[in-house]
């Protein structure tokens, strides 16, 4: 993913990843829990890879962007 504009955007992106997982997607790489050595400052979601996202999932129909 990368840097996102606000804390709310970061939360939204992380929530979408979680919802995809709840709906059956397998999280191969989870960027929600990875932190930088500098600490928890900033709004950044590291790259995330999901496999098997169900077609009916909101995640399959949503362009994830940290600018919203």
Q: Please give the number of β-strands.
A: 4
Report Rg: 12 Å
Q: H/E element string?
A: EHEEE
SS class = alpha+beta
* Strands side by side in the biggest sheet: 1-3
- What is the rounded distance between the termini? 13 Å
Task: Give me the number of helical elements.
Answer: 1
Give a written overview of the molecule:
The chain is of the alpha+beta class and 68 residues long. It has one helix spanning 7-22; strands at residues 2-3, 26-29, 44-45, 49-51. The strands form two sheets. Strands 1-3 form a two-stranded antiparallel sheet. A two-stranded antiparallel sheet has the order 2-4. The longest helix is centred in the first third of the chain and has 16 residues, at 7-22. It is globular, with a radius of gyration of 12 Å. The two termini are 13 Å apart.
Keywords:
1 helix, 68 residues, two-stranded antiparallel sheet, 24% helix
Topology overview:
Layout: E1 2-3, H1 7-22, E2 26-29, E3 44-45, E4 49-51
Antiparallel strand pairs: 1-3, 2-4
């Amino acid at each position: 993913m990368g840097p996102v504009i606000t804390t709310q955007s970061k939360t939204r992106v992380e929530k979408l990843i979680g919802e995809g997982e709840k709906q059956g997607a397998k999280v191969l790489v989870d960027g929600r829990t990875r932190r930088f050595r500098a600490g928890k400052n900033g709004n950044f979601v590291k790259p995330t890879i999901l496999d098997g996202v169900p077609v009916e999932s909101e995640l399959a129909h949503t362009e994830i962007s940290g600018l919203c």
